[in-house]
Write a structure and sequence with these properties.
Blueprint: H1 10-62, H2 74-80, E1 83-87, E2 92-95, H3 100-109, E3 113-118, E4 128-138, E5 141-150, H4 151-187, H5 189-202, H6 218-261, H7 269-293, H8 306-320, E6 325-330, H9 342-359, E7 363-371, E8 374-381, H10 411-421, E9 425-430, E10 436-443
Parallel strand pairs: 6-7
Antiparallel strand pairs: 1-2, 1-5, 3-4, 4-5, 7-8, 8-10, 9-10
Helix pairs in contact: 1-4, 6-7, 8-9, 9-10
Length: 445
């Protein structure tokens, strides 16, 4: 059985957590204040009692131990505001007289120091006193001095002060409640604004979230906008793919239908070859668009292991081109991740390595680097290379520089398209061994 229901809002959660905590801390502070006040008051009274005993001792010593010469009675009460007792072998003085039942036992106890005495059932004397007793000698004459304080009046003063502290604490708690409420309300304004923006987005009034979110919510807003961009890009790619596919296969299909519908011409080898060519064009267009539809682009939470995927591809291409050597150069750790969709990275590496494998003489080298906040992929072969004037034409969709080598000319175009979707670049240059050097550079997002 659940004792506490989980709050349905952040504001409610903060109030439930902060208000009891604030009230509890204030109550604890009030209790600690009472304990400290009691201890400080007792220490202060004890210190005053010791000072007054020391003063009386000084007066007695100045008089040579003659207690009769001291000004007693009202003088000491006006000076000290405390009850006192002075005892010598010749006489005993207690002021005021009503404290005699409390102080006389202390004179006879023989124990010096601070003592608390409680009186039960005697309304003429305080119910509790704090007394300090000291015995000293003047010449051969022993003298005992006691100065005491009425703890009842002290406790009444403490209780009054503690009560005022409680009143102030309650007022502070109410102020704390108001401050917490105001602070939470002001802090939750960006959330309310974000909630309203999401509602407008759901209703189709806006296409992106552009609220001024605090730092804690900026990653959320950025990821939502990135998700919306990704959905728009997918929709746009789907529309483009359908349009491209419709435009590309329309003419070959029309030609095939015309050829098959022309009954006046026999279906000889030339016509069969023409049909094969037309159907091959359709197949190439379907393959290209299907591959393009699988590109994901930047995705929140998606990542890939570049070293693992590179080794798998190099092993596979090594079997495809057994007469050539595929090498990997990288300082990345095996468990290092890149924020790229796994299939996208596979397409980039696979197409670059396959292209290099076709044109290389003996060796293809793959390098995976991280530098200047970018992920860099370098593929270099030792083939004959590409003329400098043709480097800018590499990666153009549908363009092939050499029709003798099998392929559709789509590999480098696919690499360029994926790279651009991640905000990166694809460049080509002459390699150190004279072959082609392809460099993919993608910013680390």
């Amino acid at each position: 059985m659940t004792l506490f229901r989980k709050p349905v809002s952040v504001k409610g959660t903060l109030l439930i957590l902060l208000l009891p905590a604030g009230i509890g801390l204030m109550a604890l502070a009030w209790l600690v204040h009472g304990q400290l006040l009691d201890r400080m008051a007792r220490d202060f009274v004890e210190s005053r009692l010791k000072d007054e005993v020391a003063f009386i001792e000084h007066q007695i010593r100045e008089s040579g131990g003659n207690v009769n010469t001291l000004q007693t009675g009202d003088y000491f009460q006006e000076v000290f505001h405390h009850a006192f007792a002075i005892h010598s072998p010749s006489m005993t003085i207690i002021s005021p007289d009503s404290w005699t039942p409390l102080l006389m036992p202390l004179l006879k106890s023989g124990q010096d120091g601070t003592t608390q005495v409680d009186s039960r059932g005697n309304t003429a004397t305080p119910s509790s006193i704090l007394a300090y007793r000291k015995t000293f000698s003047v010449g051969e004459t022993p003298i005992t001095v006691i100065v005491s304080e009425d703890l009842d009046s002290l406790k009444r003063s403490q209780s009054e002060l503690h009560a005022w502290t409680a009143i102030v604490s309650i007022l502070l708690i109410l102020l704390l409640v108001a401050v917490i409420w105001l602070g939470i309300t002001l802090s939750m304004r960006p959330v309310v604004t974000l909630k309203a923006a999401l509602k407008r987005l759901q209703d189709g009034e806006i296409s992106r979230i552009s609220v001024q979110a605090p730092d804690e919510f900026k990653p959320l807003v950025q990821q939502l906008n990135q998700l919306l961009d990704s959905l728009d890009q997918r929709l746009e790619r789907s529309r483009d793919a359908l349009a491209n596919l419709s435009h590309s296969v329309k003419t070959p299909i029309a030609a095939v239908r015309q050829t098959l519908g022309d009954t006046s011409r026999p279906l000889d080898d030339n016509l069969r070859q023409e049909l094969v060519v037309r159907l091959g064009d359709i197949d190439k267009q379907l393959e290209a668009e299907m591959r393009r539809s699988r590109f994901a682009g930047p995705q929140v939470g998606k990542s890939a292991y570049p070293i693992k995927q590179a080794r798998d591809l190099l092993w596979m291409l090594g079997r495809l081109y057994p007469e050539k050597s595929f090498e990997l150069a990288s300082r990345l750790m095996e468990e290092r991740r890149w924020p790229l969709e796994e299939h996208d990275l596979n397409e980039v590496l696979g197409n670059l390595l396959d292209n290099a494998g076709k044109w290389s003489e003996k060796t293809v080298e793959l390098s995976l680097l991280e530098q200047d906040g970018r992920m860099t992929i370098v593929v270099e072969d030792d083939g004959h290379g590409v003329p400098p004037e043709s480097l800018s034409s590499l990666g153009v969709r549908g363009l092939r520089l050499d029709e003798q080598t099998p392929g559709h000319g789509l590999g480098l175009a696919i690499v360029r398209e994926i790279t651009e979707r991640y905000g990166g670049t694809l460049g080509f240059e002459k390699g150190a061994g004279g072959g082609l050097r392809a460099v993919v550079s993608i910013p680390w997002t």
